[in-house]
Here is the input.
Amino acid sequence: MTSKQQTGHDDRVAALTLLTRLGYASTRQIAAGTYGACTLSTRSMASRMLRDLLGRGYLVEKRDGNTVNGERLVALSRAGVNALAQMAPLPAGRKHGRDWLRHSHAHRTACNSVFVAHAGVQAPNHHQGRTELEIQCGLAPARLVPFSFRCDGELHQKVPDLLLSGTAGAAPTWVEVENSWRGARDFRKLIGFLRSVFGMREPPISKVMFVSTSPASRSIGERLRSAMSHENGSGYSRIVQELDRRILGSRADVMQLDAEAMTLCPLTRLGVK
Here is the structure.
């Protein structure tokens, strides 16, 4: 096998392995997750690779009805799963990804984009953290998911959209993918979750990353800062006010997804006006 053939083989394995983690993916997601960036060049490379894998019968495809241009989505067929052998089995013992593709939805697609946007810089070594599919299939740490907390006198449980591995053994980053407007009640529970998890002596996560993926969610950072800054005084205790300052200062990030380029960029600076 020549070096070029070996590179092509490695790229195909990386793309198929990524699909075991995402359930399904678009051409842009495959480009970012396999080659480390979503550019015109890598999209062309990804398209050629996907045509080859479809020709081999390793993939099934459909058009995304939630996008204007109907971008192609692909998932592993039974033959694709078998081709990977034991290297990367599907979650929950699934034999193919047809059902995930058939029931694709906007939130999972957005979560997949955020995952590859973050992990793409490490492509194709994108084995860190947990994807939305893996979390829903029960593959996240049991001590963390679901996270139980109290808010407004009621017991609640919360599950992350993604978990990103921390550096140098640090606790993971909890990711909230914001693809719609949060109602008032849900927003109050979110604040309760932040205070609960970071009020612990040893929080099980290093920070929470909010990623806006739609215009409706662009204000999430401003809403968090308004609710937790206490600039004009509040009825909360000094302990809660100090906790909120720490959360805004070092425990929360607000990012925006560029779905075209599959990149993340800062959206709002919390704690500083």
The chain has two domains: 3-102, 140-268. The mean pLDDT is 90. The CA atoms of residues 101 and 153 lie 40 Å apart. The longest helix spans residues 3-22.
